[in-house]
Amino acid sequence: MKKNHLGALLTAGAITGAAAFAMHHTNKKKNTHKMTPLLSNYPDHSDRQVYFVGGGLASLAGAAYLIRDCKFPGSNIHIFEGMNILGGSNDGAGNVTNGFVCRGGRMLNEETYENFWELFSSIPSLDMPGMSVTEEILNFDHLHPTHAQARLIDKEGVIQDVTSMGFDTQDRLLLGKLMITPEETLDDMTIEEWFAESPHFFTTNFWYMWQTTFAFQKWSSLFEFKRYMERMIFEFSRIETLEGVTRTPYNQYDSVILPLRTYLEGYGVNFHTNATVTDLDFKEGHSITVTAIHLETSEGEEIITLQDQDLCIMTNGCMTDSATLGDMYTPAPYNPTNPISGDLWAKVAAKREGLGNPEPFFGHPDETNWESFTVTCKGNKLLKMIEQFSGNIPGSGALMTFKDSNWLMSIVVAAQPHFKNQPADTTIFWGYGLYTDKTGNYVKKAMRDCTGEEILTELIHHFHWEDHLDEIMADVVNVIPCMMPYIDAQFQPRKMTDRPQVIPQGSTNFAMISQFVEIPEDMVFTEEYSVRAARMAIYKLMGVTDKTICPVTPYKKDKKVLLKALKKSYS
């Protein structure tokens, strides 16, 4: 839903925009699946159009559900995306000359991503003939298991023993009390407010690992922290190794978005990139019925009129709104003004009740930002140094957090190559810092004001490798910082009513799908949330009754899982 004027982001995102699409068309030839014909026992949808606002995972998943489960003609599906490439926050681009970049890395989980795995079991792999994307990912992950050995590192550069969560009695009591407290009583509360009686909690190994794994802040929503504790209780007992992380073979654009797009293209779905939806019109009265979509393209403004039988499904918020990129010698600009999807949501919400309130999420960029960076090197000298330090070969470790870093800096080294067009003699790794307004421990500047070179310099000092600084830098192709003012927006303190329902009350043809809708029991900032929201929207609006949405697996009620978590809390 972003617009081309995102400047540095799209310039570097197009570091190889053309190459990414060329790669896409090359891989498309490998997709030999046959299109399923319309079946006679399904309604004829030839006179209906469905319009998706935003080209991220949720919209692509919604289109796939229309085709697979509703036998909807792909040629009647339209996806509008303001950027020049689909995928939303599932990105990955670059080349060996200018360096590679991921704004973030979407973590998957085999046990809890119920609808994600079910959907992608229908999407053919581009690289493994006869396999689905689900089979491809799980096969790769099982062959590359995660067992991190360097989760927390102190200011002396010493790997910490994190077998103990570090709780005291008060910490455990407050955690237990939170698990049994009804959500309805937690409006607008922060994690810090809940643990005000036990500030010790924020010094525990558990907090450092949980916070950086999921990008929580002390001021994040208590709702979301509670939901993560309940939804991911299965992972609580192994948070120190992150064995529950499920890896994709490549970055999420190459491994998830590209095969999904290729599948949709095979059915004739219409993709409109560089097309920004600026407003929606509603029918007069109390119902929520979209009558027109206002669109801005390179050719000017356009209004699409919806017929009575048409549907409009909107991504009502994007965590990578207003994101910008820098490079080795240029900081990524911090420019939180006019988040595209946030502004559209505000316009729409002002027209009808029940469409949520974007202000808590898109009104506090100083609380919701953090900055990532992607390091591209010639050869593997730096990765070998990290491997020898951590004890993990690339792809077998997880987040390594420098707990005393003023920026709370973390890095992760994926299996190489991490990009389909990454040469064998090129290596990359990714990192991020949660406190971008703080002065570095070694580079005396706020992280958000630092160039890529300065960010990497700070990291090397945390490893205490400053004597090797020059030889490390000699192999660096680029370090691309990415400032994201709203990347933590979905974690903001909120009222239960601030997030709209997927199908708002009174809707006849409108749904909202994103990380900013309300789905009971599920947790935001996940691939599963986007896919589940899309499935809910399609099944409800299309009246699907012969298939069911995979429910949230109730690990919080599993006695064995709870017993392991309890035992871990006393370690």
Q: What attributes characterize this protein structure?
A:
alpha/beta, 7-stranded mixed sheet, 19 helices, globular
What topology does this entry show?
Layout: H1 8-13, H2 17-28, E1 50-53, H3 57-70, E2 77-80, E3 93-95, E4 99-101, E5 108-109, H4 114-120, H5 133-143, E6 152-153, H6 169-180, H7 191-194, H8 205-214, H9 222-231, H10 233-236, E7 245-246, H11 252-266, E8 270-272, E9 276-282, E10 290-297, E11 300-305, E12 311-314, E13 324-325, H12 340-349, H13 359-362, H14 365-368, E14 370-378, H15 381-390, E15 400-402, E16 409-412, E17 426-433, H16 452-463, H17 469-474, E18 476-484, E19 510-512, H18 527-542, H19 559-569
Parallel strand pairs: 1-2, 1-12, 2-8, 6-15, 12-19
Antiparallel strand pairs: 3-4, 5-7, 9-10, 10-11, 13-18, 14-17, 14-18, 15-16, 16-17
Helix pairs in contact: 3-11, 3-18, 4-18
